[in-house]
Every structure is written in C-alpha cells, then in structure tokens.
Design a protein that fits this description.
about 260 residues; Rossmann fold; 7-stranded parallel beta sheet; two-stranded parallel ribbon; about 45% helix
Length: about 260
C-alpha cells in the first residue's frame, strides 16, 4: 500500500519509459491510480499497448507510445503528445534501460554503445526535453532516473552497465544546478534484486537473492514503485540531487550471487 495521499497526482501528467512490464509498469500504474495522466512507453508495442489497456481498465488515464526511448526525436514526440493530450507535463521518469552482460576482456564496441545510448543517452535527453517543457510552463515538476545497485557495488560481467548507472546518479546531482531555479527536482532510485516477469524466468533467482539479502527476499515491484512515487510527489518537493538505494540492505554487505 502506498503512503501517498489519494489522488496526490491529480492534474499532473507523466511520461515513463520502458514501462511495458516490471518496475516501470508498476510505477505507471500507481501514478495513474493516484490521479496522474500517463504517457506509457515501451520499445515493444505489444507490451506497451497491453500495459496501457490494463491501467485504463483499472480506471487510470494512460496512453501508449511504443518506440525507442533512446531516440531524441521520439523523446520530443512523447513530450509533445503529453502536452497535446493532457495540457502540460510535470513528471518524467527515465526507466528504460538495457542490461548486456559480458566478460570485460571480450566486451564489444557495439554492445557498449547500445548500453550507453539507452541507459545514459535516453535518460539525458528525456530529462532535457521534459525540463524544457516544464520551464516553459513555469509549473515546477520532477524528473526521476533509474539507477541500480550495480552503480554502487561491483558485479561480475556488468562493468558497462554499472558504469552507466553510476553516471546516471552523477547526472541527477549535476542537474540540480540547472533545474532548481525552475522548481524542478531531479533524483534517482537504485533498485537491487527485484522479482519481475524477467527474473522469474530464472528458477534460482528468488532463492539466491533471498539468501544474500539481509531483509530475506528480493524486492517486489511495489517496493520500488513506492519510492519512485514519493520522489515525484509533492511530499518530496525539497529533495533533489539524491540517489535512493532500495535493496533490502544488500549493498551494506554485498555478497555475490555467484
């Protein structure tokens, strides 16, 4: 259950990328049920449309925009659509990201470029496009980035991914200088192991992470969504430039899953 007042996001609109399933979907769902009008994006059109239909069936206001969240032109079209459909944009959540595991000694340039383009480029240009719109509105607003515990602790075969996540947190800190004069907060959340549609495909995932997480289980998507909604809500209007780790204590002890 969320500890945000009912309809806290009434008369607000949000873009969230990579929200066809998992953490992104739950954040989008909770935002819509709390009164926000949501532009929901996913690269997979089937996932994007199904997620939007689910939220709409539950009473939320949500439109689907499948497409590449790393493409600046597409990002601009999402911002324009939010304004055309809902009148304004107040929240942008850069949730889209890709994880490409690989041995450091064998990691290929095309893999590195893909991870950089989506994780860093997509986050940067969504923040830029959203902030320009919010500045024009003079309404204030919130930007939220999706980091990871791998931006804090070394994880085998995730050098490239972890590098991008650490960079995202620095981006959140740096943008405080740029965005605070316009009453735009910018923060990041760093989930640890989380049970999603993707991780459930690994039969050992929950057991492994339950054994090495101090709280005794991986996160549920609601655990991450609760933190995300707080950081884009009026309740956190004086919190900016911060990164919040949500990992059941794993980074405090950091045992390897291997």
């Amino acid at each position: 259950m969320l500890y945000i007042l009912e309809k806290s996001f009434h008369q607000q609109s949000a873009i969230i990328t990579g929200a066809g399933q998992g953490i992104g979907f739950e954040i989008a769902r909770q935002l819509a049920l709390q009164g926000a009008s949501v532009v929901l994006n996913d690269m997979d059109a089937t996932l994007s449309n199904a997620a939007t239909a689910s939220i709409t069936a539950q009473g939320g206001i949500c439109i689907s925009m499948p497409g590449d969240a790393a493409d600046p032109a597409f990002i601009e079209s999402m911002v324009n659509t939010a304004v055309e459909k809902f009148g304004l944009l107040t929240i942008a959540i850069a949730n889209a990201g890709i994880t490409l595991y690989g041995d450091f000694f064998e990691y290929q340039p095309d893999a590195l470029q893909r991870v950089m383009n989506v994780n860093l480029g997509g986050s940067f240009f969504l923040a830029q496009a959203a902030a320009k719109q919010i500045r024009r509105q003079a309404s204030g607003g919130s930007i939220l980035f999706m980091s990871s515990v791998t931006g804090h602790q070394a994880h085998k075969d995730l050098a490239a991914y972890g590098m991008t996540k650490a960079g995202i947190e620095m981006l959140a800190r740096n943008l405080v200088i740029e965005l605070s004069p316009y009453r735009i907060t910018v923060n990041a959340i760093a989930p640890g192991a989380t049970a999603t549609e993707r991780t459930v495909e690994d039969a050992s995932y929950e057991k492994t992470w339950s054994n090495i997480t101090p709280m005794g289980r991986p996160a549920a998507v609601k655990d991450i969504a609760n933190a995300a909604l707080f950081l884009v809500s009026p309740a956190s209007r004086h919190i900016t430039g911060q990164s919040l780790i949500i990992d059941g204590g794993w980074t405090s002890v950091s045992p390897s899953p291997y």
